[in-house]
Specification:
The chain is built from eight helices and seven strands, in the order βαβαβαβαβαβαααβ. By secondary structure, it is α/β, with parallel strands linked by helices. It has a single domain, classed as Rossmann fold (3-Layer(aba) Sandwich). A seven-stranded parallel β-sheet has the order 3-2-1-4-5-6-7, with helices on both faces. Strand 4, helix 4 and strand 5 form a beta-alpha-beta unit. Helix 1 crosses helix 8, helix 3 packs parallel to helix 4 and helix 4 packs parallel to helix 5. The structure holds NADP nicotinamide-adenine-dinucleotide phosphate (NAP). NADP nicotinamide-adenine-dinucleotide phosphate (NAP) binds next to helix 1, strand 2 and helix 4.
Length: 250
Amino acid sequence: MKMLEGKIAVITGGSSGIGLATAKRFVEEGAHVVITGRREKELVNAAAAIGENVTTVVGDVSRLDDLDRLYAVVKAKHGHIDVLFANAGAGTVAPLEAASEAHFDQTFDVNVKGLFFTVQKALPLFKDGGSIILTSSVSNIMGLPAFSAYAASKAAVRSFARAWTLELKDRNIRVNSMSPGPIDTPALATTTGLTPEQAEQAAAQFASQIPMGRRGEPEEIAAAVTFLASDESSFITGVDLAVDGGMAQV
Ligand SMILES: NC(=O)c1ccc[n+]([C@@H]2O[C@H](COP(=O)([O-])OP(=O)(O)OC[C@H]3O[C@@H](n4cnc5c(N)ncnc54)[C@H](OP(=O)(O)O)[C@@H]3O)[C@@H](O)[C@H]2O)c1
């Protein structure tokens, strides 16, 4: 028996990295996935890589109209949601002394406001007994110099999982956050604002801070998210599951 047979799953940021690996795994486990992201070409390529049982909707999670469009598509196509992986997010480098208001607003608009309304607007379609997984980060408990707005935004995400666990318990909807350590995705080189050389140095430095001595693979995150999405985690709610090679644990 597959872990997510017949489930309808929505994955924000499903066109790259962690979200894409999870979308692939969910489909392998029998789910139909609806993936979203801002870049249409990446979504089309992701759908081709996933191969079957996938719907794409272009949209920015920080725009509430885009979220309404996303869920209108889900409603028309499937009528309900069993699993939500609220994963879209990003962080850009900005030391405290140099960080602009735009940097701060952009970080919180996507990682905090976007995720908040991603979950709120899914609720009318959510099946009682479903599972919500929020992508936080080990930075929710670790100092991350030059990424303080990002780290604070991910601490907010972890906090949401606590409150929403209580708010949604009567619907038997479980809410957990999942905190990756450094994972080998395009993000470090493409969205952080680091130069290729700085990104390479950062990857090496991260690896040296991880007890397992390496960055994680997106498929290792996908495995953990699949567990949290499935009935295998039926008595787990409100936790923050670190998938970090031990980085923030020792
Ligand atoms: N990689 C790591 O080391 C690491 C560690 C801890 C936590 N995380 C978290 O894991 C999540 C996924 O990161 P990743 O490493 O897989 O990054 P990635 O490969 O860059 O993928 C990010 C995904 O999110 C989408 N996205 C970004 N901003 C969006 C927005 N405003 N609206 C809708 N979609 C948006 C991107 O598509 P578009 O650009 O086309 O919108 C893409 O599909 C993020 O929340 C990140 O903070 C990553």
